[in-house]
Write a structure and sequence with these properties.
Largest sheet: 5 strands, antiparallel
Strand order of the largest sheet: 1-5-4-3-2
Number of helices: 8
Shape: extended
Oligomer: single chain
Structural class: alpha+beta
Helix content: 55-70%
Radius of gyration: 25 Å
Number of strands: 5
Distance between the termini: 78 Å
Length: 173
């Protein structure tokens, strides 16, 4: 047996080679994780459900359920009409229903005013290319988890539970 075969494997490589291999491995691993994260993240940030109702019925049912669950409908934005005012035609239909629960809003705005950019909460009602009606919302539980503290408690807990209740009646039909 020659001298090199009797030495442990790590001793056969100089330290520089090991460090270069480790850095390259870490960079390749980080790049791979980034690619996976960026390809999966959009589908994790938005939650979409198919409505069993027509477009106008879904918007009306959503507004009713919001009020029934103790929230306030702040606005219903017809994105098609809004863009048409500026000469842009859009088909199929899209509306955004903005909603607020003042007690929750006050709690969050008392501790984390910067989160106001995500307020009020909203649901998007839209038609896909096949004419199916969809309801989309932000994945508030995931978003709130990134902030932690009171934001996670309110938006990731109470808001998430209320959103589920608001959608439950509409989606079960």
């Amino acid at each position: 047996m020659n001298e090199n075969e009797s030495q442990p494997v790590m001793q056969q490589f100089d330290r520089k080679t090991v460090w270069v291999a480790a850095v390259i491995g870490a960079l390749v691993g980080a790049a791979f994780c980034s690619i996976i994260l960026f390809s999966v993240m959009p589908s994790m940030m938005i939650v979409t459900h198919e409505s069993p109702h027509g477009f106008d019925e879904t918007v009306a049912a959503l507004e009713d359920s919001i009020v029934e669950n103790g929230w306030v409908v702040s606005a219903v934005m017809d994105l098609n009409k809004s863009m048409a005012k500026h000469g842009v035609e859009l088909e199929p239909r899209v509306k955004v229903v903005k909603l607020c629960k003042p007690e929750y809003a006050k709690s969050v705005l008392t501790t984390d005013r910067h989160v106001s950019t995500m307020m009020p909460c909203s649901f998007a009602v839209w038609e896909d290319d096949d004419g199916k009606v969809k309801i989309s919302r932000m994945n508030m539980k995931l978003m709130a988890k990134m902030f932690g503290g009171n934001v996670e408690k309110v938006m990731g807990g109470k808001v998430v539970a209320d959103e589920r209740a608001i959608l439950a009646k509409i989606l079960k039909d």
